[in-house]
Amino acid sequence: MRTLLVLFISLLLFSCQNEVKEQEEISVDHTEKGFPLFLKNLDPNRKLSSAMERSFKHYEAPRLLDNELYSNFLYTELEGFDYNDGDGTITRRDPSKIIFENGKYYVWYTYRNTPTKPMGYEKCNDTIPSKDWDLCDIWYATSKDGFTWKEQGLAIPRPEKPHPGWRSVSTTDVLKWQGKYYLYYQAFSAPSGKPSDGGASDKCPVAMSYADSPDGPWKPLNKVVIDFGAEDEWDNRVIHDPYPLIHDGKIYVYYKSGLGERDANRKHWDCWGVAIAESPEGPYKKHPLNPVMNSGHETILFPYKEGVAAIVTTDGIEHYTIQYAKDWVNFEIASVGKMLPVAAGPYSPDAFEDSGDADGITWGLSHFINAGNDWSKMYSKLARFDCDLSRKTNDPSMKKSNLLYPNDLYFKYGLNKAQRERIDKENKATLNED
Ligand code: AAL
């Protein structure tokens, strides 16, 4: 009997304790404080949602305003360039990085001056361009303030046939290495835009010219410095937009190519790789992790802190982002942007310093294709962009996140006829009117 009583009391106690425990657990849930209003009050051991965890662990700073790799982009028209009243015969596009030498800024760019506007592959010939960057040379201009430019003229002409680039040289970028200057560019040996070439219609490798002064004279190497990958490799079709920087005592040339999978615009899947060399003429070794970026048509890169930052503009799953690779290879998204500069070349004072502590950028030149808003007179023009992607500059007015486009623009990109018809059909089906 005594044993039974002890058992009963123990059971009672156990169940009471359990009840108390449950009550405690529930009461803990009910009384736990919500996420604090001010971050200074945040308990470092608090469990966070994925999004909040990302804010603290992934981004440079949890608040957009404090994120040095976020900026708005402000655009200004340039003084000093003539476009023949925008009739399509003169184009300037794909500006290089800007360098400061001899008391002025220098920029190089694709220059076309042809008797007609681009006429497409079928109608092109020795003087009529197929595309905006066909039958081009590389020209340069200088400026004291980055707004008004003095065109200096030809830097790199098309070489004689059969040297790479005899048909067109375009989309250049500059390297300064051990007191000499190097221009890397796309070297076309055929007009761009052959329709049946399934993704290779813009086929060209990279060539290079060098000079003792930014004013030239430029001597062409007359050979390919970064070539296509093997037939079954991702960069077999094109090597575009060569972009040299210096890291770890070596030359890192980033470039765009693309996988065979087409996107919604029927373009191949734009990706970026990097080729590394000990000296400007190569040999260039492509990084085994290539492609190192999965997006971006014309990507702008600049050293930032110990790594490299990239403004990834149009095209791809991560378009309109600014990314960062601490090790110059493994890029992560640092911010999401709007109105990013297209095909830009920044003034990047750290580009060739290899400092391991780079400041970033605040301005550069970009291009606007279809500059006259009339595709029948297709040409491109250069413009200036300003931003605050610099650690030293602090301009909170460039960190807005509520920029809205003019209303008209939203309606301009409205539904097309086929989409309207589909919706009408769906409506009828919903209303059982069929
Ligand atoms: C661009 C670049 C390359 C392409 C064409 C001219 O802006 O990506 O240079 O070949 O378009």
Overview of this protein structure:
The protein is of the alpha+beta class. The chain has one domain (74-409): Glycosyl hydrolase domain, family 43 (Tachylectin-2, Chain A), CATH 2.115.10.20. 13% of the residues lie in helices and 33% in strands. It has four helices and 21 strands. Strands 2, 3, 4, 5 and 6 form a five-stranded antiparallel β-sheet that branches. Strand 12 and strand 13 (268-277) form a beta hairpin. The longest helix has 30 residues, at 2-31. The protein is globular, with a radius of gyration of 28 Å. Mean pLDDT is 91; it is low at 1-16 and 26-30. 3,6-anhydro-alpha-L-galactopyranose binds at residues 94, 133, 170-171, 186, 202, 240-241, 297-298, 343.
Question: What is the mean pLDDT?
Answer: 91
CATH superfamily: Glycosyl hydrolase domain, family 43
Gyration radius (Cα, Å) is 28 Å
Q: In the CATH scheme, what's the topology name? A: Tachylectin-2, Chain A
Report the structural category. alpha+beta
Quantity of strands, as a count: 21
Strand/helix succession = HHEEEEEEEEEEEEEEEEEEEEEHH
User: What is the CATH class designation?
Assistant: Mainly Beta
Outline type: globular
- What gap, in angstroms, lies between the N and C termini? 83 Å
- Bound molecule types: 3,6-anhydro-alpha-L-galactopyranose
Q: How many structural domains in the coordinates?
A: 1
Assigned CATH architecture: 5 Propeller
Helix fraction bin: 10-25%
